[in-house]
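Q&A log
Question type: sequence-to-structure
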Amino acid sequence: MPEAGALRTRIGAALSRCTLRDWLGTAFALVVVDQIVKVLMLQWLRSGEVVEVTPFFNLVLVYNPGAAFSFLAGASGWQREFFVGVALLASGWITWMLHRYPDRLLFCVALTLILGGAVGNLIDRLWLGAVIDFLDFHVFGYHWPAFNVADSAISIGAVLLVWDAFRPDHGADAPKL
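Response status: OK
Response body:
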């Protein structure tokens, strides 16, 4: 059995050879998982229904016409087209960045997560006019806004982007964001 360090090195070497096709394939797989889970939630829950899973976690079906934390959810309807446009522009920019910097492993992982999440939520907006959220965490009566798999991927990707930006080993070819 190979030791953990050698295994990490082999995995890192394999990932460093990833191409745009690999990154886009991974983003597509994330979109598929996100959409399957959302369809299952739509079949299992009614809008607003709460299913207690643990003392701090519920499943609840919510349609969010806004963005993160229901930003602009109460707007008069123009936000749907705005968020569709933002998702399309971001997806194009991310795809270009994945093509431009395929050897920047953490950077590409972060962008791939953000791309998959953005496209997953884009599909909801085009299909239903709102994003399907269903994960509801709470503690001491305070609820985190409901979210979904795509939102989780976007959030993790954003944290990884920040982490990558502060790493000292960028080198001269690091993208200027």
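Response note: Helices lie at 4-16, 20-44, 79-100, 105-128, 149-166.
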